[in-house]
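Fold it.
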Amino acid sequence: MNPGNVTDEFTYMPYGYAKHIAHPGSSETPFQWLGGYGVYYDSVTDLHLTLHRAYSSKIKRFIHPDPLGIDGGVNVYAMANLNPLAFVDPLGLDAIFLVDSTAVFGQGHAASAVGSDATFWTYYSFGFGKSIGTHDNHDVKNYNTLKELQADNSRYDKQIRYPATSDQDLAARREGNSRFGDTYNLCAQNCDDIASDIIRAGGHEFDDAWRPMESYRKNLPDDGEPTGDQNSKSINPMK
């Protein structure tokens, strides 16, 4: 066979399945996504193995449920929000807008969380501090898992989740870490402003409505507000 001749042809389906459509040459093995973002392809089982579960490109779903349970979405086996052309989730990273709907007479308190169980989570909450005008008002904590973060911050009963790449995750953390020393101002720089800035810094569209509960409602999908505690929606395609 002459150099430069095509030896094999494959077509790749949206969920990653590689179909061998022509193989006149020497190889029966398609190009596979190997090792990227901690993913290992097992040729014996035809599964992509991540840190927490296995994925099948043939059946277009994970074969194990999301370790986050329904906090990661109603369909615990879904891949890429059932929209692989718009969403990716290489590390399971997320940026989360958190709301305590009972705070400030129902107006809410907003915070944010950035990370994944495979890396770590950082929680950001900007508030009054001991008194308005002080610089002890930016609460930043790191956690190994989302469940640990939620257990330590159980006040939050609503959330909107945004899938994130590693670069978006880093940009969101940089924004959150840059707010140390900022002064709280109810009208110009409050909890909703900082939480929204962190989400936007990660490359996600987010409409800041000044009042956390209003921001929460404005940024929900068109199908309306989900019901139940720890409400969670993964919305917005990757930028």
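The longest strand covers residues 94-100.
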